[in-house]
Amino acid sequence: MARDLNDDHINVNAIAPGPFKSKIPAPMYASEEIERRELANFPMKRWGALEDAAGLTTLLASRAGAYMTGQVIPCDGGATTIG
């Protein structure tokens, strides 16, 4: 898609979100004990915040991200590093 839209000067990127506190991972924080255990496995030891994804979105929409296209960028607090 990035290649197809390049001639129209459209950059195509994707954000791959990790552990954000939402309805989807709700079982991971069903109780404080389960939440503590799950967060202990995350490198940053916290849930992602909307501001975390917003910062990356701002980068991609700004001049600073103008030379980025065809990328899938994890926004996961390092969760992809734990294998």
From TrEMBL:
Q: Which Gene3D superfamilies does this one have?
A: NAD(P)-binding Rossmann-like Domain (3.40.50.720)
The record, for SUPFAM superfamilies, names: NAD(P)-binding Rossmann-fold domains (SSF51735)
| Record's keyword terms, sorted | NADP, Oxidoreductase
One Pfam family name is adh_short_C2
Q: Does the keyword NADP apply?
A: yes
Stored InterPro entries: NAD(P)-bd_dom_sf, SDR_fam, Sec_Metab_Biosynth_SDR
Q: Name one GO molecular function term.
A: cholate 7-alpha-dehydrogenase (NAD+) activity
**For this UniProt entry, what's an example GO CC term?**
cytosol
Instruction: Specify whether Cytoplasm is a keyword of the entry.
Output: no
Protein family: Belongs to the short-chain dehydrogenases/reductases (SDR) family.
Mind telling me what this protein is named? NAD(P)-dependent dehydrogenase (Short-subunit alcohol dehydrogenase family)
Upper lineage: Bacteria, Pseudomonadati, Pseudomonadota, Betaproteobacteria, Burkholderiales
